[in-house]
Amino acid sequence: MTPPASSTLRQIPAGVWVLGFVSMLMDISSEMIHSLLPLFMVTTLGTSVLAVGLVEGLAESTALIVKVFSGALSDYLGKRKGLAVAGYLLGAISKPLFALTTSLGVVVTARLLDRVGKGIRGAPRDALVADLTPKHMRGAAFGLRQSLDTVGAFVGPLIAVGLMLLWANDFRAVFWVATIPALLAVALLLFGLREPKRDESLPRTNPIRRENIKRLPKAYWWVVGVGTIFTLARFSEAFLVLRAQQSGIPPALVPLVMVAMSVVYAASAYPFGKLADAMSHRRLLGLGLLVLLAADLVLASGMNWIALFSGVALWGVHMGMTQGLLATMVADTAPEDLRGTAYGVFNLAVGLAMLAASTLAGVLWDAFGAASTFYTGAAICLVALSAIGWHAKERSELV
Asked: Based on the number of CB atoms within 10 Å of its own CB, is 194 exposed (0-12), middle (13-18) or buried (19 or more)?
């Protein structure tokens, strides 16, 4: 019999809750900026949609590539909190640059600095969640952290909308306010989390040496491959913001699109994370791809508000179904002493895919229109679904 949700929540370690609230505060800060940044770049700085795609792809892939080294370093040191604090601090320091920017070059610098911080903290933070949580409830723990993170993803745009209406579309003033929750996130992590002690019986060698990489099992590499194809189908959410602009939504209300997506994401991440502890990961991942396929088709075919928000809601459901799930699959298939490295390698592959996907999305958007971008995403979903079906024989390895 499955325990009630309230019982499971009480059993999740306090450190996971702290990491969740830290993520929430940083996401409030980041989304206050990111929900407005594509519009700011196109309308205020005069950049092209292709430039938005390149900046977003480069920024996100930079974060994911840096995770390789921060994850491996956390395995070698046996300490993860210090790296996480450094990453959150770097993210907080980057926020004022967005308010000061007058050119695309400064935007790129700020985005890269922000994403390097995310890269430094990402793998150690995910490894901390796995270190703190018993295996039988890892799906619920990752789902909880993702839900709290995503609460920030809709609170941030809501604050941005309110301030844009209050201050007559003053982008820079909103960017300044975004610095406050970022600093609070750093303080909470620094003083609120006690790192678990390392098991001294675990080996302490360079985790990215060839012999250690060979210890990552076949099931783990399957997760890396599917996650990479999946990311090719899921380009940056900046394109949801630009699609909203095309539908005639006033600039001050455009962040509500990210609010809608994030509300659905936050509401679904924990239930689907808990479900991942009780059902086939491969099957749940396949269902998530079907939902993303539906989202792409709806966003490609409709320009009215109903189609826009239906597609955005489906996008949020697929995120809730899959993002915590992929993190759980990495934790379950990697050796304990290589967990940080495993997250780093996984995110390197996903980061390169994100760069390719966002760049391609921008090229297609400029050359053939918005619909072509979403139809291409749908086609890649079909490829990912085929990959999952082709590897059905590996089901027993992906519990």
From this structure: exposed
| Gap between the Cα atoms of 266 and 270, Å rounded | 8
| Helix locations, the chain, DSSP H | 5-11, 14-34, 37-43, 49-77, 81-100, 104-132, 138-166, 171-177, 179-192, 210-213, 218-232, 238-246, 255-276, 281-301, 305-333, 339-368, 370-390
Distances (CA, A) of 391 to 64, 151, 219, 381, 394: 26, 35, 10, 16, 6
DSSP 8-class letter at 195:
P
What domains lie within the chain, and their CATH numbers? 12-195+212-394 (1.20.1250.20)
Answer yes or no: are the C-beta atoms of 270 and 145 closer than 8 Å: no
Q: What is the pLDDT of residue 64?
A: 66
Q: Distances from the Cα of 336 to the Cαs of 142, 168, 221, 289, in angstroms?
A: 16, 52, 16, 29
Q: Residue 106 is encoded by which pair of tokens? A: 């400064």
State the pTM of this model: 0.67
The SS3 assignment for 391 reads coil
Pick the closest to residue 373 from 295, 256, 263 (CA basis): 295
Main-chain dihedrals φ then ψ at residue 168, nearest 5 degrees: 55, 55
Cβ-based neighbours of 80, under 8 Å, separated by 6 or more: 74, 124, 125, 127, 128, 131, 195, 340
Taking CA 344 as the corner, what is the angle to CA 339 and CA 347, rounded to the nearest 5 degrees? 125
* Distance in angstroms (rounded) separating the CA atoms of residues 382 and 86: 39
Angle between helices 49-77 and 104-132 (to 10 degrees): 40
Residue 176 has pLDDT above 90, yes or no: yes
- Of the listed ranges 1-15, 229-243, 279-293, the least confidently predicted one is 1-15
Tokens of 96: 């004022």
Residue 369 has pLDDT above 80, yes or no: yes
Backbone φ and ψ for 303, nearest 5 degrees, come out as -115, -5
Are the beta carbons of 263 and 154 closer than 8 angstroms?
yes
